[in-house]
Write the structure tokens for this entry.
Amino acid sequence: MRRSLMEEALIGCKDKLTGPHKTQAYYSIFVQINVKMLYTVPQLRTVRVDRYILPLNEGGSKPGLIEADDGEKYVIKFRGAAQGPKVLIAELIGGEIARALGLNVPELVFAQLDEAYGRMEPDEDIQAQFKASVGLNIALRYLPCSISFDPNVKEIGHELASQIVWLDSLITNIDRTARNTNMLIWERGLWLIDHGASLYFHYKWDLPPAEQALRPFSMIKNHVLIRKASMLDKVNKKSREILTREVIQNILKQIPDEWLEEDSPFATAAENRLAYETYLVSRIQNAKLFIKEVKHARKEVV
């Protein structure tokens, strides 16, 4: 049987990969090739937490480093942390939209935490977090030996910078600043992490979703890459072609109902999912508004 163009490309790329961490790089190449064709949203795998290695005392979501039943290490975010499952929802939406746009994002997985897990944990706070997080959590593949991106050390191109600023304007990500870039350098590539602070409006839902999407996002002025985002019009065209309503729907379908039902103003998980869809589709359709906002912010710093 003749191989597809995608299969041929993947085989060629796989043979050229080196180092002990081929799986993550192979996964990223698959997604990037897929974007250039017809994007299909990858289905998140589910792993079981086998070992809690150590807490990563960063941010309100109190992530931790774990080992799962597939033998891989992940950075887990717990649904039982102070901010609840909305952080997990934002992580999934932001991460998978970034991946759809061809940006490097560590593989996201659902991390199943069993009820019996953590009973022997001596730290009472961690044990309480385990108890509150029984069920599905979210985790990102751990990138060993990665280093934080520093714009003063590592140069990136204007188009890539514009893609990232466009993404963060779409999802209203307040947490990609010079103080905390939430980007890593790993195997010579730039990887985006930690989208849990995105979509912060969902803690309130004080406007209909379509109207909420038109609200300004003034905090984009603090973006670490704002100075280099000079190709927004070009990336806007490409990004809107990729992010069809179907792509958005297929990303949102993966959000577990239990996350959507907790602390929600909507009667059902389906209604909440539709609200996210309406918001995102409206914001994409009206991207000219946030592009104008970014251009205005750039004038203040360039």
Notes: Residues 1-18 have pLDDT under 50 and may be disordered. The first helix runs from residue 5 to 16.
